[in-house]
Predict the structure.
Amino acid sequence: MTLSLGVDTGGTYTDAVLIRDEKEVIASAKSLTTRADLAIGVGKAISSVLAEAQVTPDQISMASLSTTLATNALVEGQGGRVALIYIGFKDSDLEKHGLKEALKGDPALVIAGGHTYSGGQAAALDAAALEAFLDSHKGISGFAVAARFATRNPAHELEAARIISERTGAPVTCSHHLSAKLNGPKRAVTAVLNARLIGMIDRLIGRAQDQLHALGISAPMMVVRGDGALMSAEQARERPIETILSGPAASIVGARWLTGADNALVSDIGGTTTDVALIRDGKPAIDPAGAQVGGFRTMVEAVAMRTHGLGGDSQVHVATEGLRGGVFLGPRRVLPVSLIASEAPDVVHSVLDEQLRATTVGEHDTRFARRVPGIHAEGVGAREESLLERLGDRVLPLSALLRSRMENGALMRLVDRGIIQVSGVTPSDASHVLGRVRAWDVDAARKALELMARKRVGSGDMLANSPEALAQMIVDQLTEQTSLTLLEAAFDEEQVGFGLPSQDLARHVLTQRGLAQHRGLLSLSAALNVDVVGLGASAPSYYPAVGERLHCRMILPEHAGVANAIGAVVGRLTLRRSGTVTSPAEGRYRVHLEDGPKDFAASEDALALLEKVLMSEAEGAVREAGAEDIRVIVDRDIKTARVEAKDVFVEALITVEASGRPRVAAG
């Protein structure tokens, strides 16, 4: 008998599950995610699941972790302070290529260097400018290096990385290590995001491993990648960007394992995001354009997942325009008022009671702030430092913390860095008021919704006449936004185009009237013609109404709340390595390798060498990660051009995939 432990660290909850012989869930447990020290929540969830199953730690054969931490960080704009070294490009390219937005005010250096399409040096690397930049910029948690045509010749990226490591000791991400494809700007964005995540994911994995050892679990630890496959903990620490969509990808694997569904939309609602993907013919599709999260298109292979800032802890906003008003949700996650009240009841209830006694609703009513311990504040400005000093280790209402409107921006910068958390009204609070959930402080949730209900809309009327009426309005809005998210995914995946963007089609008057079964001179009907698998702890609370809205079958499997943790242990360890052969001149075939280009007179010789190198790298990496029974698949994508009635070699992309089951420890 083998026992596998799966752990999923989400924005709100950490889940743990035990699976026997990859066939049966024997126990599951949940614990609140503890952002200050993730190991606390991980340890509580693991201890609970071991106690429920009545097994000892030494019986665990394998442990695997999936996490939405990287996804949530990118959606919320969080992460460490980074610097980009952009080699061989122009200063104007930072704006043109979307890198300024990705950097979010962090520094960048554009210097001479880079290579040509064929791998020759375009200009010498300006090492002196790099060294001067490093001397003048301190407090950088990670560096991203992207050079022009680095996938054709990575020499300048490697040299820049060497200089940075020697001078700073900080982790460095080279763009060519993340993708073998062309498109330097896109690789640069991916490298920036990877550098931003390194510290965060390293802390998560390190503390999770510490907790496993403290509990007496010596089994090897794996991490779920964004394509649903497994990687070793060490590999995840080097390439944390590959864990974006890790949690959602694990949920797809878990949904398939739980339901056996061959064709279905999977919708996983968490605290921060709702993630939607399609299972077609029993497999999740891989996004050919690369994973897109938080508004950024990356070069990371991941499931074709649509991630929306919509979850149980999404901030509720009041729509004051128009006579009727209303609410809308997200995309930012906030602490539910019911949760922060359960942690600091005296402060929260005293402030809420005072706000309820006021004759008007204040701008910052229901809003509290707290410092996240253990998250360092290097590189923040004077205004941010002043806020942190004023807040200290307390929970404070924003009305007491903020002394001017200028400080609003400073607060949001601290929130984006994950240094401060702010509370607000959420769907979780609404569920507490409606009696669907009683995990936290129900009275605080009711007070918060009563305050929000008093806000005035365009007609001058109050938003709602009771906390219960507002709670139902919030839940109804969650149903509506979830339905639109599923409709967008369905239109995106349709084989036949409809001539409009999917977001417009989902909201089109004909679609909406069809869902309402309009009957007039026209008879209009619309429905989602595929099953939906609803996942997440709150799915049974919210998703039956979504099924009714879309007139589809909603599948809510047993253990839906821990599907991510299940998916974490039923996948395979998989590594892919890719490389390119080009033809810079007739009769010359160039293999682009890590140590520089190598030329051959015959195309087959070039292809054979590249294939051999990639097979060795992929098989070695997956074996080092802990795989056994390894299977290797080679794919050759050879592009040719028709010239004078014969096919001429242009370029070849070789991809090698090595996969195997994780080697389990003796139990």
Remarks:
- Residues 338 and 445 are 5 Å apart (CA to CA).
- The mean pLDDT is 90.
- DSSP finds 22 helices and 29 strands in the chain.
